[in-house]
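Morning!

This is the sequence you dropped in the shared folder:
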Amino acid sequence: QVIFTRKLKFRVGFDLSRTAEVKVQTLLEGRCTDDVEVQSDWIYATFQVPLQGKLESEVQNFHCIYHDWEYLKCTWQPGLLAPRGVHYGLYYWYEGLDHAAQCDDYIQDRGINIGCLLQNVSQAEYKDLSICVNGSATAALLRPLYITLRLHNLAKPSPPKQLVVSMSASEELRVEWSPPGGETPPQCLEYEVQLAEDQGEAKAAWASVAIQMETTLTISRANQSRISCVRVRGRTSIFCADRGFWSEWMQECFSVSRQEDKQLFILIPVILSFSSSLIIFMLIGHCKKRSPAGKPLNTSVG
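The structure's back. C-alpha cells below.
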C-alpha cells in the first residue's frame, strides 16, 4: 500500500498478527526544484505485537456473518488451554473511528462470552475492519486473536420474499419473487433457482436451472411431472463483493394440470360410454343366439 501525504503522521489499520513493515521518503517538486522530482533516501521501521500465551490458548473457530447488511455476528469457542472462568472481550477498529471500540452486546454460554453482535457498522463497509478477541484469566496468559475482515465479503441476505409460481397459456412455468428485506442493496444480489419434479416415494432431486440477477424466470413445462417444487435463494454478486454467503431457501410447491391431462380427462367419459354400449350390444347378441327356434302353427282344414 502506497500513501502520499503532507502530514508528519498517519494512522492506518493493519493485521496485528503479522509484522508491519513501513518505509518513508520525502518527495520534492515544483519551483524549488525546477519542476524536477527529488527523492530522499528511505527510512525503515518494523512493528510487531509481542506474543503472549501459548497458541493453543487462542480462541477457536472464529466466524463472522454480516446479516442483511445490518449487523455483524461473530462467534468463537474458547481455546484448548483456556482455564475455567476465562473472560473474553472483542475490540474493533476501522478508518473513521478515533480509537478502538469494545463490543457492548455479547453472546454468552454458561457465563462465558462466545460471540458478539455489532450494530451500526455500515461505515466500515468496503474498509478493513480490524478485530481483536482477547482473553484474560487469573492464572494464565492467553494469546489474543487478531483478524482483519471486509464486511461486504461476509454478507448473508434473508431469503427472497413473495415467491409466486404460475402457469401461462403456452404451458410455461413463470416464477416471480421479491428481493429480501433489510439493508441489502437489491442491485447487489444474484439468485439461484432450483426445480424439483415429483419422484413418487423417492426423495425429490433438485436441479439448478438458473443463476441470475433478475427476479423473474420462465421455465418450459415439457416432459415435467404434474407436481413440482421451486426454490430460490440469494447472495451478494461479484459486482459488489468477492464472495458472500447464500441465504436460506424460499420454497413453493404446486400442482398444475397440463393440456394433455385436460384432453385425457375429456376423453375418459367418451371411452367409458363407448365401452358400455359395446358391452350391451354383445350381451344382446349373445342372448339371441341362446333363444329357442320358432315352431310352425298347427291349422285344421275344412
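Headline: Residues 55-155 form a domain with the Immunoglobulin-like fold (CATH 2.60.40.10).

More detail when I'm at my desk.
O.
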